[in-house]
Structure formats: C-alpha cells, structure tokens
Amino acid sequence: MSDAALDYRRLILRIARPSVTAPPSLIRWTLRIVTLTLFGVATAIGVTLGIGAPEISPTSVVHHDHVASP
Amino acid sequence: MRPLGHTATTLLVLVYLGAALAVLQGFFGAGLPVHFGASLVAHVSGMAAGYGAAVMLISMSRAPWLERGVGAHRLARWHASGAPLLIILTVTHASAAVVAWAQAKSVGPLSATADVLNLPGLVTALIGTAILVLIGLASLRVVRRRISYERWHLLHLLTYLAVGLGFAHQLAGPDLVGRSWLQIAWALLYCYAFALVLRWRVLQPAFQLWRHRLRVEDVRRESKDVMSVLMSGQHLDELRAEPGQFFRWRFLTRETWRSAYPFSLSAPPTPHRLRITIKANGDGTRRLFDIPTGTLVFAEGPYGVLTRRRRRRPRVLLIAGGVGISPMRSLFEVIDLPGKDVTLVYRASREQDLVLRHELDEIAERSGARVVYLVGPSSDAANDMSAHALNQIVGGLSDHDVYLCASPRLASRVRDSLMDDGFPRRQLHEERFTF
User: Fold this and answer.
1) What's the CA gap between B35 and B25, in Å, rounded?
2) pTM of the model
3) What are phi and psi of B368, to 5 degrees?
4) Residues forming beta bridges with residue B261, ordered by sequence position
5) Does residue B377 have a cis bond before it (omega within 30 degrees)?
6) Measured between CB atoms, does A4 come within 8 Å of chain B?
7) What residues in B contact A45, CB-CB < 8 Å?
8) What does pLDDT average to in each consecutive run of 10 residues of chain B (435 residues)?
9) Predicted local confidence at residue A2, as pLDDT
10) Does the beta carbon of B185 lie under 8 angstroms from any beta carbon of chain A?
11) Nearest-CA distance from B266 to chain A in Å?
12) Residues lower than pLDDT 50 in chain A
C-alpha cells in the first residue's frame, strides 16, 4: 500500500473512531443540535427570502383587476 | 388498514385547513368581487398547486413522527393519490394563466405563451412543470410496468428539482406579493419542507452509516429467487428497531448504490446484527444477490407499525404470503403470549418457495406456537384464505389480532374477506410493499 493510501486510511479511521466510542447520550445531543441548527438556518433563509420577495408581481397584467396572472 | 390515529387525524385537519386558506388566498388574489373565468382558475389552481407541492415534500420526508403517527403505507397512499392532483393543478394553472393573459391582452394563445415565458421566473417554472408531468407519466401503471424500479426511482428524485424551480415564481406571484407576512410564511413552509427532507432522508442515514457502520456480513440463498442478507454493525440497539419493521436499504456498490429498497427485518434485531430476506423482483433486486461481503449499507429507518405493540387481543394470527414471511418470521419469534396462542399461516405456491421453514419449525417447537403451511394452487380448497377458512384454522377469529404481509393480490383477498365477515379493522395490522 502506498504512503498516500496509508495516510488516507488513517484519516478515515480517525474520522470513524468517535462514531464507535462516543456514548449514546453524546450522539443524541449532537443530533438534537444538528436538527435545531438545520431548522434555525431554514428559518433564517425563509424569513430572508420572504422579506426580500418582490412587492410587485411581474406576472400581474393589471393588479387586482380580474385579469391574467400566471 | 388500521383506523386513523390522533396524529394522522390532526395532520389531515391541518393539511385541509392550509389548503382551504391557500385556495381562499387564490380568490383574494384574483380580486373581489369574484369574477369566474380563466384568471380565477389560474389563481386558485396556482395557490393550491404551490401548497400541495410543499405538503407532498413533507409527507415523503420520512420524519419519524410522521412515519410512526401515520404509517409508511398510509403516507405512500396519500402521496400516490395527492401527486396526480398536484400535477393536474399545476398544468391547469399554467394553461388557465395563458388563456387569461390572451384574453387580457387580446392576443392569440401562441403570442400569450411567448409573453408569459418572457416574464421573470416563468421559464424555470415551466421546466419544473414539465418535469412533474414527465414523472406523472412515468408513474402511470401502464408505463410504470415497462420501466425498472431503479429508473423510476431516479426520475422521481427530480421532483425536488421541479419543486425548487417553481418556488421563485410562487413567491413573486400576484397572490402573495404585497403581503410580506404571507410571503414569509410561504417561504418558511418551503424551507421547512426541504429541511425535513434533508434532515431525515440525507443526514439521518448518513449519520447512521457513520455511527453504526453497517456492512454485509453474509449472503445466504434461501431458494432460487430468495436470499437473506446478514449485516453487522455497532450500537444497532440505538436504532430501536423492532421485529416487523422495515428499513430502506441502499447497498453501496457501484451497481446498486443508486436505489433504496424497502425490506423488512426477517429476524429480531440484536445490538450487532440485522437480517433481511428478499426476493428478486427485477433486475435491480437480482443484482443484490451478488453483493460482496463487507459492502457498506446506507439504511433509512426503522419504519413501519407492524409490531407487537399493536396487539390488543389475547390471541394472534400471523398471515404470510411468499416473501411476506420476512416480517412475520421475526414477529413469530418475539410475540410473547400466555400459553403462546400464536398461529402462523404461511402460504406459498410451491414447496420450494417456503423459505425459512426450518427456523419457523424450530420456533414453533420451542415456544409451543403453531405453523400452518398452505402450499399449492389457490384453486385448491385446502388453500382457501377466506375469513371462514382462517376461522376454521384458528377458531374464534374475532379474538385474534391479525398481522398480514403478502403479495398485493393475496393481501387484498384476505383483507376483503375479513372485512366482509365483519372482522374489526383495528385488529388487522398490515404493511404493504409495492415497487
């Protein structure tokens, strides 16, 4: 096996090791934090997108006048 | 199917309420007083389609509270009936919008189409719609039969792209613009839907791969077209999988990594081992027969409500048809009743199709439970699976919880017969798998 392959193997093992040794409570809390962070980010993106959304629709022909708006 | 539980009922009420609000907003968007015409159809169908797309994403996010509260099969059924409606609404919206534009501008349909496509975000929305229509066509029964599950599954994944492509157009649509709070709520709905998908369909299985390092330990042929895959890993007890449940398995080889297959556990899980028993149903599943030992396994789950916790009655009847024996085999081992009043009825066309038979006999001998094999053509009176015949086998059928897993045809026959006979729905537990 080449040196590069050995380095790669060591790196994989280093990343994988905590997965086996970490106690279940630490794993549970990590997952909770990941979930909270993910939904926190989703909230931030959602609010930013909503605030930054156009105020005039490019698809309205005449706004609120029974006409086309695809 | 079991009656709707609290979670499912609450969810349905919320979904219908949201749909009503979206449609109402479509009416307001078209302008008051209500004027019936193409414009109104475009507004209402557009809002309903946009809302429906987000609901579809959430329903297929595999979030555990959804899978446990509603059930994988019921979610799939809702998805299967809601998705065609979503496509129809989207196409209706696009067509009605072009007609309304043509009327408003007094131009022909081709000119109106060109005008509409020149508007910002409309080309991407059109591509999204085209993808949805393509997926819809591929899911028609007559087309679906001709393409492999793997291709269909890959095509289905494009739904996320289609929904994403339509989002910008929705946010800038005339029904939402000028109402900041509504635009924020709409954007949040979509962001949360995608976050749920990312959390439970991507991060969770990736995490499980990292934590449990599930690998194929052994592959054993049970019959010509059925095999068992034994997998080993770390901390598997943390999955809290139960006999009768299933995972969606993705075997990480060059040939098989693209598709995830739902297979039930065929033996009670242990902290270090899981086993499934699968039947070759097509080229994709047949390729699984050649998985080398040591292959990493990406597993989503556990899912399913076919567990011993569903039991309410003092006696249990397990009914398995063909490879439907897989979840029944694991339940058969763990359902623990006083006097072990458990009967397993196992139906197969041929003797050689009775897989795991030695294990079933051994469990029956050890625990005092009973196995009844029904082998041969279904026209044979001895293989009757009607409620009357099942009652003759077990006696006092209404005192039983019935667990059922079989081919769609057999399951439907048994279910219909039980229902016709007045068997209580809440005592029938089943998981249905169809590719």
Assistant:
1) 14
2) 0.81
3) 90, 5
4) B249
5) no
6) no
7) 187, 191
8) 72 91 83 78 93 93 85 83 93 93 88 86 91 92 83 88 90 84 94 96 89 92 91 92 92 87 93 93 82 92 86 90 92 79 91 91 90 87 86 90 91 92 90 62
9) 66
10) yes
11) 26
12) 62-70
CB B124 within 8 A of CB A62: no
A13 close contact with B: CB closer than 8 A: no
Distance (Å) from the alpha carbon of B207 to chain A's nearest alpha carbon: 9
Cα distance from A17 to chain B (closest Cα, Å)? 9
Residue B382 phi/psi, 5° resolution? -70, -20
A&B contacts, CB < 8 Å: 141
Closest CA to B288 of B190, B220, B213, B345: B220
Burial group, residue A58, by CB count within 10 angstroms (0-12, 13-18, 19+) = middle
Token pair recorded at residue B411: 């399951």
Edge-to-edge order in the sheet of strand B370-375: B370-375, B342-348, B315-321, B400-405, B428-430
**B173: β partners:** none
Q: How does strand B297-303 pair with strand B261-264?
A: unpaired
CB atoms within 10 A of CB B261: 22
Rounded to two decimals, the ipTM of the complex is 0.77
The residue type found at B348 is A
Question: Which amino acid does the sequence have at B405?
Answer: C
A33-36 own/partner pairs: CB under 8 Å, 24+ apart: A34/B199, A34/B203, A34/B207, A35/B199
Nearest CA in chain A to B29: A64
Considering only CA atoms, give the Rg of chain B.
25
